[in-house]
Write a structure and sequence with these properties.
Elements (H helix, E strand, L loop, with lengths): L2 E6 L4 H16 L3 E6 L27 H6 L4 E2 L1
Parallel strand pairs: 1-2, 2-3
């Protein structure tokens, strides 16, 4: 098992979606995962934010972030 730290430093839907997707994949494979928001990435800590905006590939942050929250993946700000 490996340790993963995913750092999101941008208020960008595409980057956030990939960050959450990769964190979910790593957690599902049994790895220890932490997510940390820095700089403009702290905007993703807003619980009222719309997480349904699709990326160019059609997925969105809401496809992955709820899994991280439900599985108590540590998310630091």
């Amino acid at each position: 098992m490996a340790n993963f730290l995913f750092v999101l430093g941008a208020d960008d839907n595409q980057k956030a979606t990939r960050c959450f997707q990769f964190a979910k994949i790593a957690a599902e494979k049994g790895h220890a995962v932490n997510v940390f928001f820095v700089d403009d990435g702290v905007m993703w800590a807003d619980s009222t934010r719309d997480l349904t905006t699709p990326t160019l590939t059609g997925d969105c942050p809401n496809d992955y972030l709820p899994f991280l929250v439900e599985n108590e993946i540590p998310i630091g700000v």
